[in-house]
Design a protein that fits this description.
The complex is a heterodimer of chains A (318) and B (501). Chain A has helices at residues 7-26, 33-58, 66-83, 95-116, 121-140, 150-157, 165-183, 185-195, 197-202, 207-233, 244-255, 266-285, 290-308; strands at residues 145-146, 159-160, 163-164, 235-236. By secondary structure, chain A is mainly alpha-helical. In chain A, the strands form two sheets. Chain A has a two-stranded antiparallel ribbon. Chain A has a two-stranded antiparallel ribbon with strand order 2-3. Chain B starts with a strand and ends with a helix. In chain B, the strands form six sheets. A six-stranded mixed beta sheet of chain B has the order 6-9-10-3-11-12, sandwiched between helices. Chain B has a six-stranded mixed beta sheet with strand order 17-20-21-15-22-23, sandwiched between helices. Chain B has three domains: 2-240, 3-Layer(aba) Sandwich (Rossmann fold); 261-336 and 423-501, P-loop containing nucleotide triphosphate hydrolases (Rossmann fold, 3-Layer(aba) Sandwich), CATH 3.40.50; 350-420, no CATH class. Classes of the chains: A mainly alpha (318), B alpha/beta (501).
Chain lengths: 318, 501
């Protein structure tokens, strides 16, 4: 799964193990199936977002539209779900493909604006994120949409081996992501563009199409996160996607995905997500006061980046 | 006054320099020649303090010294004019000249630009450049920028009491003939201010300007001659280590091409600001070399053929088929047109992708179905080509960034050869390669030609053009001015030069 088996590429895994040992040492309750299930639940939507943005980062671009896309697709999902009877049994299932399709289309639009209109992805995706949040507020009128369907909520409540169903859904799409990365032309082209875009173009890689497809794929993953968030919380609102931008990009970097492209992949996203999720959970378990958690998270993230990424060849940081 | 004794430098197992002796006297112009990979740049970096020698001593006016950094070397009066120019384009000329030394113009924490301007003016007058010091450097021509760099280095005069030694790294590589002459006159006039070390692979130029010439080969100083008794042919053979035999460019493998099968036909093709009304035909198995100075439009022609730019006027007919229209590299590749750009490190290989991935990068369609890759057939292909071209690599999954230059070049060739390109364009395919790797590239050009591929090559030297080509087109100011046929007649480099100027 790792592209190069060097010490540097296993550093994120070592960091993860050290964190687990550290928190277990401070509070043995950390190392329990119950707590791991808690971490996995928190990590599931978060992992989907991180895999999505990882594809974009591999390509050497950045996508900051995740918060808006997650909120918008979560709300679209809820409305559609309620429209078709409010339960999975009655036809509410249609909401799932609708939400995923909406995410993919929104992502494609995001990619099109960036690649066709030649707007840096940083700017175009940030703007599209705000558009998404704005649309979410507009749709809900600032309120909350609830889903009370027991069958749908079984994603959270029904457990196999101690882990709820949604964790298995996330694992399924983790594998799907790895397949795209390793076994498809799209995955290969992402690395080519991230490695040397001029050369990719000179080799006949359809750069524009690949860019739009990549953002569409990312949008698809964000909408998966949207659906899982609804399963987790039982509701959607305009802030459903809040915080995911910082966390997902942080997770990708901590896991070893290089921001300048072509290095790392879906597996790194997984490790990064687990690192950040473990830090978040560990702070609660050891009883760190609420008001300190954000600050400590920031400090630990910097420490994790220092430990887990190879910066020896970087002469300038931009 | 500046002397290097028994300088050696190793990079891991590679001996880059061994026991080099080198000296520069006051006001002298010293030439340093050698093939690519001979150790010129390593020696230069040691002189300039960017590298430290593993052993040996540096003497200035007989006193032993050490440079631990370029800053250190500069304090001792050693300056360098870089080949890749080191000016920052979005800063003005004066800001570039005094970059890092702005504090000299500071008053109450603010910069006194008037003072800086007049100081810059004074530096520019040393090199005879009459431009506004407040101009941004990217508005200057290449030759002008070079003069600004020289002016920047000459600020050392005011900064140190030492005698100056200025390194010129391949200063003529992108200059026109007139500009070269101007530069040489200037350097000669500056002798009173500084000694120069002139580094180049253009032997004739080095001999014409230098007082003495050092010849480097494989990290050793193989000769030191005064310019008066310098014999170009002898130095050439010392540089290469053997007489250049007639088969150097595999001329004996140059077979006649098929005049009946036209692969490519350009009819009065024009592109604004690049070239005007260019027409020529390329036939099956033919090698066409485009010769001309930098900016004569050679590269732009290649880019138009490859669909990276679209011509304004005229017609390009591919494979005698009017229906083939190429407006993007994507369409070019799908129609069997390949292009190997100049800077292979940046444009030729994907450093972070492995050999197999690089080879199939131009033929994803062939190695996939419904968007899924055929990884096993891709690996078989890579293994096959690693064998055929004897690419030296630990395995086919080695990242190409870790291969040597020659092997990277082979990977790029494997990529285009295996994708079945019938028209191949090579932009400076041998630049930066050592002799062995160059020979491999020549063999591959012959092999491609023999299998029916038509090639357009922008060569590194005139000799290369004459040795390789069936047909040479000389380009000047965006026009095709003359045609030579070295496969049928005897062509000398001087003929090409005459046509170019």
């Amino acid at each position: 799964m790792l592209r190069n088996l060097k010490l540097q590429s296993v550093m994120p895994i070592i960091v993860l193990v050290v964190l687990v040992v550290f928190f277990t040492f401070l509070n043995p309750n950390f190392f329990s199936l119950r707590n791991f299930a808690r971490i996995a639940i928190a990590a599931s939507p978060f992992l989907m977002v991180t895999i999505g943005v990882t594809f974009i980062i591999i390509m050497g671009s950045i996508d900051l539209s995740m918060e808006g896309t997650v909120s918008l697709t979560a709300i679209a999902f809820c409305f559609c779900f309620l429209f078709f009877g409010g339960t999975l049994g009655s036809g509410g299932w249609i909401a799932i493909p609708v939400a995923l399709l909406a995410g993919a289309i929104y992502g494609a639009l995001n990619g099109f604006i960036h690649a066709k209109l030649l707007i840096p992805s940083f700017m175009s995706s940030l703007a599209m994120g705000f558009v998404g949040i704005g649309a979410a507020v507009l749709l809900t009128g600032g309120g909350i949409v609830r889903i009370d369907d027991d069958i749908f909520r079984s994603l959270l409540t029904y457990r196999i081996q101690g882990f709820p169903l949604m964790v298995y859904v996330a694992i399924l799409f983790l594998i799907f992501g790895i397949i795209i990365q390793k076994f498809t032309v799209l995955g290969r082209n992402l690395y080519a563009i991230g490695g040397a875009e001029d050369l990719a173009a000179a080799s006949g890689v359809p750069v524009l199409r690949t860019r739009v497809l990549a953002f569409s794929l990312a949008g698809f993953y964000y909408s998966l996160a949207g659906v899982l968030q609804v399963a987790k919380l039982g509701q959607a609102e305009s802030v459903t996607g809040a915080n995911l931008m910082f966390l997902s990009i942080t997770a990708a970097v901590v896991g070893g995905v290089a921001l300048w492209g072509a290095i790392g992949g879906v597996f790194n996203a997984l490790i990064g997500v687990l690192i950040v999720a473990v830090i978040n959970n560990g702070m609660v378990v050891i009883g760190l006061p609420d008001y300190l958690q954000d600050g400590v998270l920031g400090v630990l993230v910097i420490a994790a980046v220092i430990l887990s990424t190879n910066r020896s060849n970087i002469r300038f940081v931009k | 006054m500046l002397e290097f004794k028994n300088i050696s430098k190793e990079f891991g197992p590679v001996k880059a320099l061994s026991n080099i002796n080198f000296r520069v006297e006051k006001g002298e112009i010293v030439g340093l020649v050698g093939e690519n990979g001979a150790g010129k740049s390593t020696l230069m970096k040691i002189i300039f303090g960017a590298y430290q020698a593993d052993s040996g001593t540096i003497l200035i006016d007989g006193r032993q010294t050490r440079f631990t950094s370029p800053r250190d070397a500069m304090a001792n009066g050693i300056g360098m004019v870089f080949q890749e120019q080191s000016l920052i384009g979005n800063l003005s000329i004066m800001e570039n000249i005094f970059l890092g030394r702005e504090h000299e113009f500071r008053k109450f924490g603010l910069l006194n630009f008037q003072k800086m301007e007049s100081a810059a003016q004074q530096q520019l007058s040393k090199v005879g450049l009459k431009v506004d010091p407040r101009m941004q450097t990217f508005d200057l021509s290449f030759a002008q920028r070079q003069l600004v760099e020289l002016a920047k280095v000459l600020t050392l005069e005011e900064r140190t009491s030492r005698d100056l030694v200025i390194l010129l790294d391949e200063p003529t590589s992108v200059l026109s003939e007139d500009e070269v002459e101007l530069l040489f006159n200037l350097v000669n006039n500056l002798r009173s201010r500084a000694a120069f070390i002139f580094v180049s692979h253009r032997l004739d130029e080095v001999i014409s300007i230098s007082d003495r010439v050092y010849v480097l080969k494989d990290g050793e100083m193989v000769d030191e001659v005064s310019a008066q008794d310098a014999d170009p042919a002898k130095i050439q053979s010392k540089m290469v280590g053997r007489e250049i035999e007639s088969g150097y460019y595999k001329q004996d493998e140059r077979e006649t091409y098929n005049e009946k099968e036209t692969i490519l036909s350009l009819k009065n093709v024009s592109k604004e600001n690049s070239f005007e009304s260019v027409s020529f035909d390329l036939h099956q198995s033919e090698v066409v070399c485009l010769v001309g100075t930098e900016g004569s439009g050679r590269e732009a022609v290649l880019r138009c053929i490859f669909g990276m730019n679209n011509p304004d006027k005229g017609q390009i007919i591919y494979f005698q088929n009017d229906k083939i229209k190429i407006r993007s590299p994507f369409e070019a590749v799908n129609n069997g047109v390949g292009y190997m750009p100049r800077e292979r490190k940046i444009e030729g290989i994907f450093a972070s992708m492995n050999i197999a991935e690089n080879i199939t990068s131009s033929q994803m369609e062939k190695y996939s179905r419904y968007g899924f890759l055929h990884l096993t057939s891709e690996q078989d292909l890579a293994r096959d080509w690693v064998d055929r071209l004897s690419i030296k690599t630990p395995s086919i999954s080695t990242d190409c960034g870790r291969l040597s230059g020659g092997n990277q070049q082979k990977v790029v060739l494997a990529k285009w050869r295996s994708s079945g390109a019938e028209l191949m364009m090579l932009d400076h395919p041998t630049r930066g390669l050592d002799i062995g790797a160059k020979q491999d590239v020549y063999s591959m050009i012959r092999e491609m030609s023999a299998s029916g591929v038509g090639l357009i090559v922008v060569p590194d030297t005139f000799e290369e053009a004459i040795g390789l080509a069936h047909t040479i087109f000389v380009m000047k100011d965006g026009a095709c001015v003359k045609r030579f046929a070295p496969d049928k007649e005897r062509v000398m480099p001087i003929d090409l030069v005459a046509a170019m100027t």
